[in-house]
Specification:
60s Ribosomal Protein L30, Chain: A; two-stranded antiparallel ribbon; 3 helices; 30% helix
């Protein structure tokens, strides 16, 4: 399998992080019936958690960067599970969870950090269905967590 998508990412200055190990009793990815289900990936950059709460101590832009970091970790998990990002047929759905105050309402704008990165990486195949919801807290105090369903090309 070639790595054309990764070469295109490198040309854009985008690099994948090392896939994060699970922090509890689950696996990072499960493939069933041509769909790859990626467990929730928390906001992390340069090996450090991106923590905070939207509407409190984080700006919209910081939230978008946290969501973008989740997109890159999802791609790292896809590569680890599927062997190559070139196996991606389509990003089917993202579930975006935003650590936010009760009155915060820009969850979709925060989620765009992840959604936009998927389109940058996969083009039209990166367009997806999505849910973006606010939550009172996330694991380890992170700002954003995103899970994904990915359709894989058959070999």
């Amino acid at each position: 399998m070639t790595d054309n998508i990764e070469k295109a990412m490198e040309a854009k200055g985008i690099t994948l992080p090392t896939p994060a190990a699970p922090v509890a009793s689950y696996v990072p990815a499960v493939e069933v019936g041509g769909l790859l289900h990626i467990s929730g990936q928390v906001s992390m950059a340069d090996g450090k958690l991106i923590t905070g709460r939207l509407g409190d101590n984080m700006t919209l832009e910081q939230g978008q960067e946290a969501a973008k970091a989740c997109a890159l970790m999802i791609c790292a998990q896809i590569k680890a599970a599927a062997g190559s990002l070139d196996r991606v047929d389509r990003i089917v759905k993202l579930g975006v969870f935003v650590n936010s105050t009760p009155d915060y309402t820009d969850h979709p704008k925060v989620a765009n950090g992840c959604s936009d990165m998927m389109e940058v990486i996969f083009g039209g195949a990166g367009q997806h269905a999505r849910a973006a919801v606010g939550v009172a807290a996330l694991p380890l105090g992170v700002a954003v967590e995103v899970d994904a369903i990915v359709s894989l090309k058959t070999a």
